[in-house]
Specification:
The structure holds 3 protein chains of 3 kinds. Chain B is an alpha/beta fold. Chain B is built from 16 helices and 17 strands. The longest helix of chain C has 18 residues, at about 135-150. Classes of the chains: A alpha/beta, B alpha/beta, C alpha/beta. Chains in contact: A-B, B-C.
């Protein structure tokens, strides 16, 4: 019996977005179908994975992931170079944790200096993230944006409460920008509209609908991502056609499942594999839901996710 | 296509006899329209109505049971493509492969692992659901020996017998007669004989096709041979093929009501690399498999896959709920702040996240309010002064606190006096309305 | 369409303070204004009212009916408060409406009150925990509520089915589910079942200037699909209600129809 595949085609298409420069630049997006649905449309780019690096030692990361970087994590430059040169990172995501008022309260100038040094040390694209303290991020990212001028880096994250200054800084220095809302597709759309109303080019935007971890709200992120992708494609909604970011590592490596010893919970199995698996499974779910850029921590989890992406290719 | 409840109601006897277990024929019709009951529960329905309704009330993906007894799982019955549209109904079964070339000791070890795979997650008991017994040796006697071992050691665990030999199937299935096993391996060369064996042992027939064209062909032929229950495999093995075929199958079934593909899907995730295998299983769970077959089931992997299955199959209309309890954030002492909120999981995640951000150790009481957020719960009478007071009293928390002070969400400031009346000796403090006000609020107190 | 004035709600600060102080002034002023704007029933929402609910509802009903010749919609989860309100309700201007029963066993006794006091009652089509996913689920619950009402001796003509309007800002797809449910509810009985919505919930959480727009257009769509009654701001939707009644031929047109 000949079977006619029920293909779906959509009017909309996501924006292609490039970060970094030269032959190391990375481009994502540009597809006119749901994630990995190359069988019924065009998926010109693979999702990209960024390695997370912090501007201070990872003293709150569990052993499984902290030990990987123990010889390099005393400073962001050695850490970033290790990710690029030894682990093959295609993108570095530098998180300015030390600027948080509770984590050292480093000044905006100090943060800018850190970014300058990391930029000088690497040649892959850079994502620079604040400490998720809305007020402080606004001050820090303005300074950081000046240092990033001309590098085509990705800056984040702009939120409802601080977007004005950060958007202005990204515009003035010709940077790409992450807009984050908290697990609400309507708020995501609203923030993207507000940013657009400031004159920011919608094709330079990345939407972060907010991540979560497996067992800790994963289904919310998953469904918000699927809905954003469907609105972008089926409703041709230009405010939701930006590539999506999943900031996975920071959510995964704080949950009990990545920290509890096997001796305490034998039914949960090996702590090391469990932690890596938690990050890989969380990340893979978001890829299936439509994420274009992942920020992750453990190189083995990243390796597994890359193998998954390769397995998705059909010759 | 599907009839509305009222259209169905018109064809029912309208006697309100209650023999179906529903209070009225109208209520029965409404449930039938939603496929929550089946037509044969009505003893008085006319033949004519049966014929008309039978077709219309048949779910787009045939409901099928895997296994028997308490551990049996339902498959099929899905009606949507995306979980935000309407809940995914029957969580995907996870099966582990055992080859009949494995030694008895190795096979026994896998069976033991499956038997001890049960994990309690948020009040649900989750486990590996089936053994996939594979006739890799090509020797019927070996498959039977394996089936005998598995059915003896793990009589309650469902089996999928995988072979292309009808005779081997017959011998192995004897150990699973009447237990809703799956006989997997029916192909274009052996279909009729395999169909006969499946029927003889009341097993579900597993179709092993090479492509969707052939799959449609085989299910239609099997139906012709009198087989009703099937699970289907298009032959997809690479992740990209699995996504493509499972998507086409689900779409055909639920959007076109295309019967040849209206059966539960079996997806093979097997890889030598165990972690990669788990990620292929993630794809199967998210994208429409009813059974995912694994090569290995380490505990760390089980925990992750069970959790994912639970997340994906959560009803988007029934908010995930956190268990009623008093949770410690950081290491609170007797002087640490004590807060209360509702058990809507998103409320809990956001409130506990903001408390963490504040770096102020706290106790957070979570009251069972049926998964509603604060204001909604209050309006619905689920987050009231007396419920809060009763919970706090029964928790015995006051022995751990130096001062009996409870911080309530700003949205229910109106309750503060009433709680104070009901909780003698307690001071009620009104906190911020939104969780993002908590860090500043808590730090100002510290 | 019957407009049930929504303004006497404990959620509003001015009303809450008046309730606490038992100050009749603001309550009667608001009730009268709603009547003038076209409300023909007044909702008295006293919240869960665990303490002193009986006394409060009694006071609300008499306070309202002192100045307005309209029946009252008794809005609380407190069973005893409803009964207290029913006892003092003046049925001369129409029968009261209990808000509400549902498929949650905690709310079943409300039907007992409806039967005992010959009151009308709202049947909210939700069960215990979780929201109905679509129009079909709402209908299934409606059928159960109807069956239960018959057991308790409440005639189906006295039930207003409420499909539960959800916020468009967070549950956009439910806006259409509710419209479909209103249509389908009517088919559940002959004569058609009566229907009611808590209209302004559609725009709950939306910016202030958007709210009346959403409320009005939504009311028009619901009325077109046969909605019997709405708990709403009569100031906001009086005009919509009259206009749609003219367009759908429920009232005879005259140039001054808006003034009637």
């Amino acid at each position: 019996m000949p079977f006619t595949p029920p293909k779906e085609s959509y009017n909309g298409k996501t924006f292609e977005l490039t970060i970094g420069q030269g032959d190391k630049a990375v481009t994502v997006g540009g597809e006119n179908v749901l994630a990995f649905h190359a069988f019924e449309g065009s998926v010109p780019r693979e999702p990209a994975v960024a390695f997370e690096v912090q501007d201070m030692p990872p003293d709150d990361w569990p052993e499984t992931v902290a030990e990987v970087f123990k010889n390099v994590s005393s400073g962001p430059v050695t850490w970033a170079k290790y990710c690029q040169d030894s682990l093959g990172a295609g993108i570095i995501a530098l998180r300015l944790v030390s600027t948080h008022p509770d984590r050292g309260d480093a000044s905006a100038d100090q943060a800018a200096e850190t970014v300058r040094k990391v930029l000088a040390a690497i040649n892959v694209p850079l994502i620079v993230l604040g400490s998720n303290h809305a007020e402080k991020d606004a001050a820090v990212l303005v300074k950081v944006a000046e240092v990033l001028k001309g590098t085509n880096s990705l800056l984040g994250k702009a939120q409802e409460s601080n977007y004005k200054t950060i958007v202005a800084a990204a515009m003035a220095n010709d940077l790409k920008l992450i807009a984050m809302s908290e697990l609400d597709i309507n708020l995501s759309k609203q923030l993207n509209i507000l940013i657009g109303q400031m004159g920011f080019d919608k094709e330079k935007l990345v939407t972060d609908p907010m991540s979560s971890a497996l067992s800790y709200g994963l289904e919310y992120t998953y469904s918000v991502m699927e809905r954003i992708k469907l609105a972008a494609l089926a409703q041709n909604d230009a405010t939701l056609q930006a590539p999506m970011l999943a900031d996975v590592g920071m959510f995964v490596w704080k949950v009990k499942e990545t920290q509890a010893a096997e001796a305490d919970l034998p039914a949960w199995g090996s702590l090391r594999e469990r932690g890596i698996e938690w990050e890989a499974v969380t990340a893979t779910s978001f890829l299936i839901a439509g994420a274009d850029i992942l920020i992750m921590r453990h190189p083995e989890a990243i390796g597994a996710v890359k193998k998954f992406i390769a397995d998705m290719e059909v010759k | 296509m599907a009839l509305t409840g009222v259209e169905i109601f018109k064809m029912l006897p309208k006697t309100n006899c209650k023999k179906c277990g529903q209070p009225t024929c109208l209520a029965f019709a409404m449930k039938l329209a939603q496929r929550q009951v089946s037509l044969d529960q009505c003893p008085d329905v006319s033949e004519e109505a049966k014929q008309k309704l039978g077709e219309a009330s048949a779910p787009p993906i045939r409901p099928t049971v895997l296994g028997s007894g308490e551990l049996a799982v339902k498959m099929g019955e899905e009606t949507v493509l995306f979980r935000h549209e309407k809940k995914f109904v029957n969580p995907c079964a996870i099966a582990v492969k055992i080859s009949d070339t494995a030694s008895e000791a190795d096979a026994s070890k896998v069976i033991d692992d499956v038997l001890s795979s049960e994990i309690d997650r948020v009040g649900q008991k989750l486990r590996i659901n089936a053994l996939f017994l594979s006739n890799d040796s090509g020797d019927g006697a070996k498959l039977e020996a394996l089936a005998k071992l598995a059915s003896t050691k793990a009589p309650a665990v469902a089996a999928i017998i995988s072979t292309t030999s009808p005779d081997a199937a017959d011998a192995a299935l004897k150990h699973y007669s009447g237990k809703n096993a799956v006989l997997y391996g029916a192909n274009k060369d052996n279909l009729e004989a395999m169909a006969g064996k499946a029927k003889a042992h009341k097993a579900t027939l597993g179709i092993a096709a090479t492509g969707l064209d052939e799959l449609c062909d085989l299910t239609e032929k099997a139906k012709g041979f009198g087989v009703a229950d099937m699970v289907i495999d298009s032959g997809a093995r690479r992740a990209g093929e699995i996504l493509r075929d499972n998507t086409y199958i689900r779409r055909s079934a639920v959007k076109k009501n295309f019967k040849p593909l209206g059966y539960p899907v079996i997806t093979f995730a097997g890889r030598d690399d165990s972690m990669l295998e788990s990620l292929i299983a993630v794809l199967g769970i998210a994208k429409y498999a009813s059974i995912v077959v694994l090569n290995s089931a380490e505990r760390w992997k089980n925990l992750a896959l069970f959790s994912l299955r639970q997340n994906i199959y959560t009803d988007p209309q029934v908010p995930m709920q956190v268990q009623q309890n008093i949770y410690k954030i950081g290491e609170p002492g007797p002087k640490s702040p004590f807060l209360i909120t509702t058990n809507f999981s998103l409320t809990y995640f956001i409130v506990s996240g903001e408390v963490e951000n504040s770096k102020v150790p706290c106790r957070l009481a979570v009251l069972d309010s049926e998964g509603l957020s604060v204001l909604t719960a209050w309006a619905a009478g689920k987050f009231t002064a007396s419920k809060i007071a009763q919970f706090i009293k029964e928790s015995g928390i006051e022995t751990e606190l130096e001062t009996k002070e409870l911080i309530i969400p700003g949205y229910v400031a109106i309750l503060s006096g009433s709680i104070e009346d009901k909780l003698e000796g307690w001071k009620i403090t009104v906190g911020p309305r939104e969780a993002n006000g908590l860090p500043a609020f808590l730090k100002a107190r510290a | 369409m019957l407009i049930i004035g929504e303004k006497l709600s404990i959620i509003a600060k001015r009303v809450r303070e008046a309730m606490l102080k038992k100050d009749k002034g603001p309550i009667q002023e608001i009730a009268k204004r709603q009547w003038d704007e076209g409300s023909r029933m007044i909702d008295a929402n006293i919240g869960p009212a665990e303490d002193g609910g009986e006394e409060l509802m009694e006071w609300m009903v008499t306070t309202i009916q002192e100045v307005v010749s309209a029946p009252v919609c008794l809005d609380t989860t407190n069973y005893k408060a409803i009964e207290a309100g029913l006892k003092v309700h003046n049925n001369e201007w129409g029968r009261p409406l209990i808000n509400s029963t549902s498929n949650d066993p905690e709310r079943f006794p409300m039907l007992e009150l409806a039967a005992k006091y010959n009151s009308q009652i709202i049947g909210l089509t939700v069960g215990k925990g979780g929201l109905p996913a679509d129009a079909e689920e709402r209908c299934a619950i409606a059928a159960e509520i109807m069956a239960r009402a018959m057991e308790y001796g409440v005639p189906l003509e006295d039930i207003y089915l409420d499909p539960l309007v959800l916020q468009i800002a967070t549950s956009q797809d439910h806006a259409m589910h509710v419209i479909r449910a209103i249509k389908m509810f009517q088919e559940l009985n002959d004569p058609p079942m009566k229907t009611v919505v808590g209209l302004s919930n559609i725009s709950n959480g939306c910016p202030k200037h958007v709210r009346p727009i959403l409320n009005k257009y939504y009311a028009a769509l619901l009325m077109y699909n046969g909605l019997t009654a709405a708990i709403a701001d009569s100031h906001e939707i009086g005009e919509v209600s009259k206009t749609i009644d003219v367009i759908t031929g429920k009232t005879l047109y005259a140039h001054s129809y808006l003034e009637m």
